[in-house]
Specification:
Elements lengths: L4 H14 L5 E8 L5 E7 L4 E9 L14 E6 L5 E8 L1 E7 L4 E9 L12 E9 L6 H8 L3 H69 L4
Length: 221
Amino acid sequence: MNSSPVHVLRAVVVLLAATTLRVVHGVWLDLPSSGTKCVSEDLRPGDIVVGDYYAFIGQQADGNSPVLPTISVTVTSPRGVELHRQENVTYGQFAFTTSDSGTYLACFSEHSDHHEEGKTVTVTVGIDWKTGIAAKDWDTFAKRENLQEIEVELMKVEAAVRLIHGNLIYLKERDAALRNMSEATNARVTWYSMVSLGVCIFVSVFQVWYLRRFFTKNKII
C-alpha cells in the first residue's frame, strides 16, 4: 500500500515534533477556594507560546446546568515581568514570544464565590499550553497565503527542523555556561584552599615561635 506524499510529510512532522521539548500539553487544575494554583514551563529565548484557558464547574447535584465561574489569570516571566493578566473572566488566551530563558508561570485563582452554604463546589480550569510549531495557526496561515496542503506540510517540516536546531544550540550554550561556571567554581575553591593552607602554616609557625620565646624568656628551657 503506497502512502501519499502528504501522509509521509505528516509522519515526518510528527517524528520531528516528538524530538522537541514540550511542544504542546494540556493541564487540568482544581482551584482552591482561596489562594492560587500555577503551572510552569521551562522555555528558551525566542519560543512562541500560545495558551488557552477556560474555567467551569461540573453538573450540579440538583440537576442544574453547569455553572460558568470567573477566575483571575496572571502569566509572568522568569524576571517577574507580567506578560498577561485578566480579572473576572471565564475563558481567554495568552500569547507571547519569550525573551529570557527560564521558568514561565501561569497562575490561576478563583474570582467569584460559588461556595454555597453546606455545599462544596470545585472550580476546574483547563489549560492548553502550546509552544513551537504547535503554537502556530497553520490553517489560517494556509488560507491567507493560498497554500496547498503539501506546501503547508513542508513548512511544518522546516519549522520543526529550525526548532530542533535552535534547541540544540540552546543546550550547547547552556552546557558551555555550566562548564564555565564549574571551572570558575573549581578555581575559587583551589584559591580558597591555598589561602586556608597558607593561613594554617602561618599560624603554626607563629605558635611555635611564640612558645619558644615564652619558654626561653621564663627560663623554662
